[in-house]
Design a protein that fits this description.
This protein has 446 residues and is mainly beta. Helix content is 3%, strand content 45%.
Length: 446
C-alpha cells in the first residue's frame, strides 16, 4: 500500500539534499559515544550552536546510507539546567526509504552512527556532529526463553483512563506515491474513555463500565467541535468480559443500547506464549464523530518484548480486517472495499495493563472532489433525536445494519437535509479513486 507523502516527507527529502560548507564540528553533550539508549533518545546540543529560527536534523546510519529520522526546530527544544538545548528522537517510530515509501521500517537493536546537523533559518547547514549509540529497545531475555502468561489485571473498583486520538489521511496513488487529497480537511478526533470495574464475578468474569468524557471532539477544516457539549447524558455502557479480553456480553442493559463504545482491552491468549506464537484476535473500533462501529477479526502474534513508556512490554502485532465498507465525512469519502487494520499493542505483562495500541486502518475509497458542505458532527441534535450527537437513527441496526449509518447529509447548494437513506446528488465524474487511512493511537493515561 502506498504511504501518504505529506509535508514531513517532502521536508525530509529537502533536508537530505541540503549541502553547503559547514563551520566545523561541534561537540554533542548527549548522547555520549557508545551510550546505550532506548525509546525517546535525549539529544543535547550547546545553546549557541543552533541559531534563532534554525533547526536540527537527525540522521542514523553509516555515512552515505544514513536515514533521515526527524527535523526539530529550535523552538521545540527544552532548556537544560545550563541553558543547553534538549531534543528527543523517538527511536521506535517508523522511517521510510525513498525507494519504497509504502513500507514502514524500524531500527533493530544494535550500534548505529548518529549525526545531528544544524541549519539556520534559511536552510543552510551551519554545523554537524556525530557519535555512536547502542540501541536497546528490546527487553533482554534468556535463550531459550520461557513462555509468558498475558492476562488483563482487573479488580473491583479499578479505574483506568485511555486517550483515543485519530487522524484521517486521504490520498491518490500515483507511481506508488500517495498524493494527498482534501488536504485542507484535516479530519481528526480525540476522546477519553474511562473504564471502571464495577463487579468481579466467579470464573474470571468482570463487569466493566465504559464512559466517554464530555470533552470528546472532532475537527474538520480547522474547526473543532465538542461532540457532547450540549448533551445531558454522555455515552456509557456496561460490558461483561473475562480476564483475557473476550467480550461475553457487549451491552448489559437495553436502555443503553443506543450507545456504542469501542473495545479497549486487548484479546489475549489463554495459555503461555513465546515469541512468534499466534492466536485469534478481534476488536471493535469506533471514533466518535468520524466512524461507525467497526468489527474487526484476524490473527495476533507475540512479536517481541520491548520497552514502552518505561515498562517491560509484550509487543503484540495483529492483522485484522472487516468486509463491511464504511463512509466518512457524510459520504465525501466512500469505502469501496474491505477494511484492513495493522495493529501494534504494547502490553505490560508484569502489571497486566495495556500501555498503548497503534492502529492503521486503511481501505480503497471513492473521494468526492465537489464542493460539498462537510460537517462531521452536529453540536446539538435536531428535535426528537434524544441525547445523541448523531441522532437516534444512526444506532438503529434493524434498519441500517450493524454499526449504523452516517448522520443526515445536506443537499449540495441548498443547506437542506437529504431524505433519510439517500445521498446528495452529485456528478460521479467529480469523484476520484484513492486510499483512506486512519491512524489511531489508544494510550493509557492513568
Amino acid at each position: 500500500m502506498a504511504r501518504y507523502f505529506g509535508k514531513s516527507a517532502v521536508f525530509a527529502a529537502a533536508v537530505m539534499l541540503m549541502g553547503g560548507a559547514c563551520c566545523g564540528a561541534y561537540q554533542l553533550i548527549a548522547p555520549t559515544d557508545g551510550q546505550a539508549v532506548r525509546e525517546n533518545v535525549k539529544i543535547v546540543v550547546p545553546a549557541g550552536v543552533v541559531p534563532d529560527g534554525g533547526f536540527i536534523s537527525v540522521l542514523v546510519g553509516e555515512p552515505g546510507s544514513e536515514q533521515f529520522v526527524v527535523a526539530l526546530s529550535r523552538d521545540a527544544a527544552k532548556l537544560g539546567a545550563g541553558g543547553e538545548l534538549v531534543f528527543y528522537w523517538d527511536s521506535k517510530a517508523p522511517y521510510y526509504e525513498s525507494s519504497d515509501p509504502s513500507e514502514p521500517r524500524y531500527f533493530k537493536d544494535g550500534r548505529y552512527p548518529l549525526t545531528v546537523k544544524v541549519f539556520d533559518s534559511t536552510g543552510k547547514m551551519t554545523d554537524s556532529a556525530s557519535t555512536t549509540i547502542e540501541l536497546k529497545n528490546r527487553v533482554p531475555r534468556t535463550n531459550p526463553a520461557p513462555g509468558v502468561s498475558l492476562v488483563n489485571a482487573l479488580s473491583f473498583g479499578q479505574v483506568n483512563h485511555y486517550r483515543v486520538h485519530c487522524d484521517v489521511s486521504v490520498y491518490e496513488v500515483v507511481n506508488r506515491i500517495g498524493l494527498p487529497l482534501l488536504g485542507g480537511m484535516g479530519l481528526s478526533g480525540d476522546a477519553l474513555i474511562i473504564q471502571s470495574v464495577e463487579d468481579a464475578r466467579p470464573g474470571g468474569q468482570y463487569l466493566i463500565r465504559l464512559r466517554v468524557d464530555e470533552d470528546a471532539w472532532v475537527s474538520s477544516y480547522g474547526v473543532k467541535k465538542y461532540i457532547y457539549a450540549d448533551q445531558e447524558f454522555k455515552p456509557q455502557l456496561y460490558r461483561l468480559v473475562d480476564k483475557y479480553g473476550t467480550v461475553i456480553t457487549e451491552n448489559m442493559f437495553a436502555k443503553q443500547a443506543k450507545y456504542q463504545i469501542m473495545d479497549v482491552l486487548p484479546v489475549l491468549p489463554r495459555h503461555p506464549v513465546k515469541e512468534g506464537d499466534q492466536w485469534a484476535d478481534s476488536m471493535t473500533l469506533k471514533i466518535d464523530g468520524i466512524t461507525p462501529l467497526i468489527k474487526l477479526k484476524g490473527t495476533a502474534w507475540l512479536d517481541s518484548f520491548e520497552w514502552q513508556s518505561g515498562r517491560e512490554c509484550a509487543k503484540i502485532t495483529s492483522n485484522m480486517a472487516s468486509d463491511r465498507p464504511i463512509s466518512l465525512a457524510n459520504g465525501k469519502i466512500k469505502g469501496t472495499g474491505p477494511l484492513s487494520a495493522q495493529v501494534t499493542t504494547y502490553f505490560a505483562y508484569k502489571t497486566g495493563r495495556m500501555i498503548e495500541r497503534n492502529i492503521r486502518l486503511s481501505f480503497d475509497s471513492s473521494i468526492s472532489m465537489a464542493d460539498l458542505t462537510t460537517e462531521p458532527v452536529e453540536s446539538s441534535p435536531p428535535p426528537g433525536m434524544g441525547n445523541l450527537p448523531l441522532g437516534e437513527e444512526q444506532f438503529n441496526e434493524d434498519v441500517y445494519g450493524p454499526g449504523g449509518r452516517p448522520r443526515t447529509t445536506l443537499q449540495p447548494g441548498t443547506g437542506q437535509p437529504a431524505a433519510p437513506g439517500t445521498q446528495p446528488t452529485e456528478d460521479t465524474t467529480s469523484r476520484k479513486k484513492g486510499k483512506a487511512e486512519l491512524n489511531i493511537v489508544v494510550r493509557l493515561e492513568k
